[in-house]
Amino acid sequence: MNDAINRALEHRLLVERQISDLQATSEGDGPPPSASELPANATTQQQLDAARGRLTILLQRFTPDYPEVVALQRTVADLTTKLEGERPLGATPAAAAVSPAVAAQRKKVLDLQAELAVVDHQLSINRAEEARLKQTIASYQGKVDVVPTRESELVELTRDYSTMQAAYTNLLMKREESVIAANLERRQIGEQFKLLDSASLPGAPFNDRQRLTVLCSGAAAGLLLGLIAVFLLEYHDSSFRAEEEVMAALSIPVLALIPLIQSDHERLRQRRRTLAADVAGICVLASAAAIVVIWRLQS
Predict the structure, then answer these.
(1) Number of Cβ atoms within 10 Å of the Cβ of 4
(2) What is the distance between the alpha carbons of residues 95 and 213, in angstroms, rounded to a whole number?
(3) 79, 131, 202, 282: least CB-packed within 10 angstroms?
(4) Which of 29-33, 38-42, 241-245, 255-259 comes out lowest in average pLDDT?
(5) CB proximity list for 136: less than 8 A, separation 6 or greater
(6) What's the pLDDT tens digit per position in 20-31?
(7) Closest Cα partner for 109 from 24, 28, 52?
(8) Is residue 176 predicted with pLDDT exceeding 70?
(9) How many CB atoms lie within 10 A of CB 123?
């Protein structure tokens, strides 16, 4: 790609040199006379031809914004307007006389300029392709730079795989050894173990009295706790349950009975008390069952 760009640049320099040589040759032939160099009796057509020829030569060297070119274009426009005013009605303007050599030289300059445009276009294409290739090379270079990192990651993965493979092989060997040992045991090839004296079991439990004592003491303790709980509840309960209790306590007759009206807070508190009592009873039963199970396991 660099060779193609270099060849295109050399070709461009050659074309520019040829255009410069042609322009220098056209300047060596002498530019068309200006308005001051024409004779005093020169016609408007001659002045217009001279101005057009000089404008053509200047456009080959300078841009249309060049001050001298702009002034000469204004002069050509003025001379054209003046010639149109001097020409009779119905007459056609005569074409400016140009020599064959000048026409061929202008054509060659235009061809070289077109060739120069083609070379510039090819240069732009080659440079764009060069930029694309550089970007592709940079992408591949980045991938190549990442190769050592990938290699280290692969080494770590391979090391872990080797460790797991060794562990798997060890377990597989142990499994095979256990299978072989089981086959030897089934075929009675290995060592044999025989029971010489079986264990003797007792005819009756030796701690039967202790078991009955624990069961009876638990029942008695539960009954005693229940009686104590009922007594405490009755002792702390100061409510009247019959008319006779009211008359004995207040010495006044009972006129009417009003049922107990509880608020939401009281009902919630009573429900909580009931739930607490149930939970306590369940805990006591569970504790007793756990004690019995532990005692049976130890015996």
Answers:
(1) 14
(2) 149
(3) 202
(4) 29-33
(5) none
(6) 776 666 544 444
(7) 24
(8) yes
(9) 16
